Amino acid sequence: MRRLIVIASALLLLTLLGIAWLESRRVKPVALTPTLTGQVEYCLSCHAGLPEISKSHPVKTFGCVICHGGERLALDASLAHSSMRGGKNPADYSVVEASCGGANCHSGSTASYNDHIQRATTSIQATYAGAIALMRYSYGAQPNQTALFGISTVQDSQSTSGITSLQAYNPASESNPQLRLFGENCLTCHISAQPTQTGGRYDHFTGCSACHTPTQSTDLTSVNTITATQVHKLTTAISYTQCDTCHNRGNYDLRAMTFEPRTDQPTDRLHDYYQPIAQFTRCEWTLDCLDCHTRTEAMGDGSLYGSKFDIQYIRCKTCHGTPAELPQTITLTDPNNIAFRQALLNPVVDLKLGDTVLVTEKGEPLWNTRLLQNGTYRLVGQATGQVFTFKPVMGSGCTQDPNDQSSAACHKCHSVQR
Amino acid sequence: MNGPRLSRRDFLKLARGVLLTISGLLGLGGLVRFFSYQSQPPAPTEFDLGLASNYPPGSRTLLPQVPAILIHGDKGFSALSLVCTHLGCTVESTPQGFACPCHGSRFDPRGKLIRGPAAKALTVLRLETSPDGKIHLFTN
């Protein structure tokens, strides 16, 4: 009997020691009560080392849960992550409204410039309507190139483009085998799709993060060996390399209906430029894509379109003018002009009231440009901070027809050889 | 050299005693830890700012612990919350007034809204002066 008591005492002690050991290994709770929610959350117990995701989303104000979801009180990783929205990507379009939406955040009004979700989810980058229409027309599935289908169903009664809805495209219902192959192999170029490759330089997130969360190295010398790193960052300083995660991956072979990844290994920016067969001018490969292409070109203007050519409108003359006229400019007199918002989010320029900047034919200010006193212009690279100065075409001796300002016309004299 | 040998019975008794004592101490420690646990205290809503005489006329004193600014103007003391009325970031004091570093809202030196996205002025906070001359600020 005495021996049994001793054994029971030893077991009791071992149990208590085990509990004490487990307790010592438990995560020490780190509480945070974000200003915005007023609800305590314990995510920082494990994630205290993460950098601020952006200046506009400080963790002290937003916390983690309002964007990511998850169980805010849990200290166990599995439980805490069990209800996260979109896994590691709360900006995936399937959950973006819950994560990033709200009238004060990114599904506000056009007038307050925070209608990002409405614009992005109806943009041609999300719907892929143009490519679908073109392919269906090419293979006789529809009589013209009118956009009828998108990646998912979209209704937009306010659309000013004439297209008010798109039906979800179902390649399996196509009778033409090429179109079924198109569905299988080629629908990965929209921003709701996971990339065809992972872990390489073409890796990217989906939804908003596809553009606003940098995921890859800019090291051009190791194209196939880069391990994409998932950076906890949201930015509007978007490098061309981020655009390249979709737009420079390779080409589609329309006979075999397959995607052919790039096999070349460019070692400099010139050779890393977009399609290998394209003609382009110096500014097209020294600037970043968003130094020219505007917010509505990249993210849409809220209407549905059936071709990228219906929304993409920036031309050489937007910045350079023509032999007959100077480029359009606007002097910033309204402190609520969106140019100031854009300059705040990406402070590569110190924009002030009274500054004169270039403006597009649709009235979008090119906020990172400036008209200088000597009549020339300055552009500061949004992603690089690099300063470029340039002159207007007018008075330069250029003999191009002012009414023919297509890029092909400019490329006749200004294309770069490589 | 050979001392009295411990009998088997005494050894078991001793072992039992030692084991139960350690177990008891461990259990007691656990209980103390359990009962001494303090959950996250609620954020304070009242702040003792010290003597009013510490804030001379014309002064504008940042109070980062609130966060707020105490203004000693022509009509006496007033206080403004530095929590932006848009999404709750802490606004920064500038020569022109206040600026939100998150989304760019601007407020004049009295907290009046100059530019959005915020839609309201900075919140005026309640102040009380106690009989001993101390200023108390309330955020609720």
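The interface with chain B takes residues 2-3, 5-6, 9-10, 12-13, 16-17, 19-20, 23, 31, 33-36, 40, 55-58, 60-62, 104-105, 112, 114, 335-336, 340-341, 344 of chain A (CB under 8 Å).
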